[in-house]
UniProtKB/TrEMBL annotation:
Keywords: Membrane, Transmembrane, Transmembrane helix. GO terms for biological process: cAMP biosynthetic process; intracellular signal transduction. The keyword DNA-binding does not apply. SMART domains: CHASE2, CYCc. Residues 460-592 form the Guanylate cyclase domain. Pfam families: CHASE2 (PF05226), Guanylate_cyc (PF00211). Gene3D superfamilies: Nucleotide cyclase (3.30.70.1230). GO terms for molecular function: adenylate cyclase activity. The chain crosses the membrane at residues 340-361, 373-392, 398-419. InterPro entries: A/G_cyclase, Adenylyl/Guanylyl_Cyclase_3/4, CHASE2, Nucleotide_cyclase. It comes from the Bacteria. The keyword Transmembrane applies. This is Putative adenylate/guanylate cyclase.
Length: 639
């Protein structure tokens, strides 16, 4: 067999060098991580949609839904319902974790605290405030609260340097309630940079110890594990020792964050029960008896899933997911030893070696058709292995580097073949050499233009919501509700667009819009207020028509705030949403919630920018969640 000619060897070497350089550049730009994350989202979405798994049978969601909130009424505000809830579960020997934070005193707190002390296990949630959020408004901890937190820290064995996030402080329930709990555990969870929730921190550092996640705290209590025996290997795993040599190993990163082991969509999760049913069993013997076998000895995660709380986020499988489900997913993952793990270094190295050898052989195939088919087969084989490793071994995709390398090697080799095959056609060759780089540059420039990468900038945010819409629509025909909403949202959207605003989303009868992006507008605050006034005037016109047609007293609350927010494309590979997030967005929503029906309530920041353009009412002080002091607000006066 004759040896390969120098030109035959030179071509593959040039292709390999080009692929290596391009791979290094793309890797430095984060393309591989983006590809892997997109594939992870796609595979996880497919897995939980088509191959859902049940939670651990001992774990049950106890959801405080909108309907439960209405039916329980005053007993929720007084916390009598919470005391009943705990008393019932205590008699069932159930362990309870509260994904609630009770910030203000209530009439039945003493009964609630006593029920917590008497329960088999009651773990109360606390919310971490991370160090970087220095401007976050929070109450200073009292000496009692600091002592209580210190008594709840864990001291685990940490092997090597790590970057477990350090909390600046924690937000606790009122002290009599917090001190009655068997343990305090954090409910902190933050989305990735694209707004999607994929990971959850298992610890926050506090003083000389660690505060565990609520899911981890419940699992450790349930399994009877001594926290001081837990071992953390940064970038590898968190080891929970069981009896003998057995242990649960949770794959974690350097910050001791684990991938959330979603197993089903929220709608497919059957292990849920109404908060109202459990609380009601305290006064209904028949209900109490019927729930006994269902709840006895179980682990209950009680959470507020009301739409008013809006404690929802985007996950790889769903665009609206109650964040309390993250805690139950992690708890189930620990109990079932079901987690997603990254590829080990040895596995990556072995796979890379196999593909380099395969590329060496494929590069010497002379016929273009066979060359292309061979590379497609190799890429397809690696794609299949990635999918199988995910479904069978729960290994996270490591596809970007290999897949992109294969593609770049193939495209580089193919381009070199084209040049070598048509080198006598100088004009065509020159045309190709000019066309290809320009096309690539135009594509990159185009993508930068439409990418709308998240940016931090000042915008004006508008929230609107129809007063008493839920009560009105409850007994109406769907066709009537649909017809009304279609006309209403069309009219409101048209006005927002007329003033240069962007409609972020329609949330049922609610609207979130913002002004000042994607195109800069120095007068975005004035435009927003003008739009809100025009919307209210249009609503008055529509109210006359729809009062006769549907007996609806159409009045809309509107809230406006201006400030710096994050704006841009957020989402997953198959579902991107152009949206805004940030504290000033939330404050705009709080203004809407505090606005009178038919009125427009704005923050002082809006008034300062537009006080020479519009009339405002007297100063109001509005108390909103997350702010220690009342927020200064003003109602827009218009005819």
């Amino acid at each position: 067999m004759s040896e390969p000619s120098p030109s035959a060897v030179k071509g593959p070497l040039c292709a390999a060098l080009a692929a290596l350089v391009l791979s290094a550049v793309l890797g430095a730009l984060g393309l591989f991580a983006t590809i892997d994350r997109g594939i992870y989202d796609l595979l996880l979405s497919a897995k939980i949609r088509y191959f859902p798994l049940a939670l651990n049978s001992q774990i049950i969601h106890a959801d405080l839904s909108d309907s439960s909130e209405v039916r329980l009424g005053e007993s929720l505000g007084s916390r009598g319902a919470f005391a009943d809830f705990l008393n019932v579960l205590g008699s069932y020997n159930a362990r309870v974790a509260f994904d609630f934070i009770f910030r203000t005193p209530a009439a039945e707190d003493a009964a609630f605290a006593e029920a917590a002390r008497s329960a088999s296990l009651c773990i109360m949630a606390i919310a971490p405030v991370e160090m970087e959020y220095a401007n976050f408004a929070y109450d200073s901890l009292t000496s009692e609260e600091k002592a209580l937190l210190s008594s709840n820290v864990w001291h685990i064995r940490e092997h090597g340097k790590n970057n477990i996030p350090r909390a600046r402080t924690f937000i606790l329930s009122d002290y009599p309630i917090s001190s009655a709990a068997a343990e305090l555990a954090h409910i902190g969870v933050l989305p990735d940079s694209d707004g999607v929730y994929r990971r959850t921190p298992l610890f926050y550092r506090w003083e000389d110890g660690l505060i565990p996640a609520i899911s981890l705290a419940v699992a450790v209590r349930e399994l009877g594990i001594d926290p001081s025996a837990i071992e953390f290997y940064p970038g590898h795993c968190l080891v929970l020792p069981l009896s003998g040599d057995e242990a649960i190993r949770i794959p974690v990163d350097e910050s001791c964050s684990a991938l959330i082991p979603f197993t089903a969509t929220w709608a497919d999760d059957d292990y849920r029960i109404s908060f109202e049913r459990i609380a009601g069993a305290a006064h209904d013997e028949e209900l109490y008896t019927s729930l006994f076998s269902e709840l006895s000895g179980s682990m209950i995660m009680a959470a507020d899933t009301t739409t008013g709380k809006r404690d929802f986020g985007i996950t790889p499988g769903e665009t609206v997911y109650p964040l309390s489900g993250i805690h139950t997913a992690v708890l189930s993952g620990i109990m079932e030893e079901y987690f997603y793990a990254p590829w080990s270094f040895a596995a990556k190295l072995g796979t890379l070696a196999v593909f380099l050898i395969a590329l060496l052989f494929l590069s010497f195939i002379k016929k273009d058709a066979r060359y292309n088919i061979a590379f497609l087969a190799l890429l397809g084989g690696f794609t299949l292995w990635t999918v199988l490793a995910w479904f069978l071994l729960r290994l996270c995709p490591w596809y970007g580097a290999i897949g992109s390398g294969l593609f770049l090697f193939w495209i580089s080799g193919f381009v070199l073949r084209l040049f070598r095959r048509y080198k006598e056609q100088i004009l065509y060759q020159n045309a190709l050499s000019r066309y290809f780089p320009r096309s690539l540059a135009a594509r990159i420039a185009s993508e930068k233009k439409i990418d709308l990468a998240p940016a931090y900038k000042e915008l004006t945010i508008l929230f609107s919501d129809i007063a008493s819409f839920t009560a009105w629509s409850r007994d109406k025909e769907p066709s009537l509700v649909h017809a009304f909403l279609s006309e209403y949202l069309e009219a409101m959207g048209s006005i927002i667009f007329e003033y240069g605003g962007t409609v972020d989303k329609f949330m049922g009868d609610g609207i979130l819009a913002f002004f000042g992006d994607p195109f800069d507008m120095p007068d975005h605050t004035r435009r927003c207020v003008d739009a809100a006034i025009s919307m209210q005037k249009k609503i008055r016109e529509m109210a006359l028509t729809w009062k006769d047609r549907a007996n609806i007293d159409l009045k809309v609350r509107m809230g406006i705030n201006t400030g710096h927010v994050i704006v841009g494309n957020l989402g997953i590979k198959n579902r991107i949403e152009y949206t805004v997030i940030g504290a000033d967005v939330n404050l705009g929503q709080r203004m809407e919630g505090a606005a009178p029906a038919g009125g427009i309530l704005v923050t002082s920041a809006v008034r300062e920018k537009t006080q020479d353009m519009f009339s405002f009412g007297e100063r109001r002080e509005v108390r909103v969640k997350g702010y220690e002091k009342p927020i200064e607000a003003y109602e827009v006066v218009f005819l």
